[in-house]
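hey
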């Protein structure tokens, strides 16, 4: 009986850690909507796609998103949502399945960002206004729903 309690506690901790990790990554990827500098581009990219250690040269690497929990560092956002999905009760999984499908469109917006120069001469990456509105509606709004997962129960 004691083992079951501990296993339940481990799942609860995983559940909370995943929510925190996803929320932190959300803060980085929401910059796609408003614009971000070249240095921030590496943060946005690694917050979504994860850190691909095999493609980073330590001498020339740009700063990357640092995971809140080291075990999630190399993982992409979609895989984190999948893991979270597996921790909730069956009837709540469809919401996370929908969010995972939405995440498939993120790369389209990320790569569609255009380099622009502000009035102050600063270079930023930014979406056209119509794309920015679509990004907010189709990607950011559904991801925000993960924050309401306090009401989900663990299996």
């Amino acid at each position: 009986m004691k083992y079951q309690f501990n296993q339940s506690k481990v799942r609860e901790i995983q559940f909370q850690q995943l929510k925190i990790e996803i929320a932190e990554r959300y803060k980085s990827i929401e910059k796609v909507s408003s614009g971000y500098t070249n240095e921030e581009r590496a943060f946005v990219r690694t917050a979504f796609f994860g850190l691909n250690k095999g493609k980073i040269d330590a001498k020339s690497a740009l700063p990357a998103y640092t995971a809140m929990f080291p075990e999630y560092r190399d993982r992409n956002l979609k895989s984190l949502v999948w893991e979270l999905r597996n921790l909730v009760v069956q009837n709540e999984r469809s919401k996370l399945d929908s969010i995972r499908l939405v995440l498939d469109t993120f790369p389209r917006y990320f790569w569609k960002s255009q380099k622009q120069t502000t009035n102050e001469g600063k270079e930023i990456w930014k979406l056209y206004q119509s794309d920015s509105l679509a990004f907010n509606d189709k990607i950011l709004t559904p991801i925000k729903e993960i924050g309401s997962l306090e009401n989900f129960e663990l299996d």
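Confidence is low (pLDDT under 50) at residues 56-60. The chain has one domain: 2-150.
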